[in-house]
Fold this sequence. Notes:
About 25% of the residues lie in helices and about 35% in strands. The protein has helices spanning about 1-20, 25-50, and strands spanning about 60-65, 70, 70-75, 85-95, 105-110, 115, 130-135, 140-155, 165-170, 175, 195-200.
Amino acid sequence: MKSxxxxxxILSLLLLINCKASQYFQSAFWPNFWADVFVAALFGIILxxxxxxxxxxxxxxxxxxxxxxxxxxxxxxxxxxxxxxxxNFAIKNTGNKTIKTGEGYWNTYLDFxxxxxxxxxxxxxxxxxxxxxxxxxxxxxxxxxxxxxxxDISINKEDLEKSHIPYMFQTDxxxxxxxxxxxxxxxxxxxxxxxxxxxELQK
Length: 203
């Protein structure tokens, strides 16, 4: 939003100069302006290609289910009338910078109690809050599996609509999603600012 506003202001100023300035001023102004634009663009391209100054990761949490990565957990009906799935978590990076081992934490907030094989990392005194260090590098446009636990999810039909997994990341490059605002007096943040892994019935 801010970048759009700045662009409109700059464009308005340029139009005003073009309309109001004298011919002599314009003949001196425009060649210098376009030369500056070219140099700035070239400098920006070089910075982006050869340094990390303009690069940033962009993280989301997904699941790996039946060998495929998804942002939605697909449930199937079992013989007991419940809806079940077995999934692993993975971190997805759609940014242009690698996030390295130890450069942040992932957090999930579970409103249900899954069964699992060795899953852990629950925060003491916070039921359902799972948190751990990012233990492996996540490269641009790739996935990194969290392999040391998996969920065996079982949900009643009446709980399907309210079932989802809120998550967020705290990293050296900021929070993901970006809009999360922490209350420093409580150490918490509004749940509606988090991202979500959805849970749906398999079609």
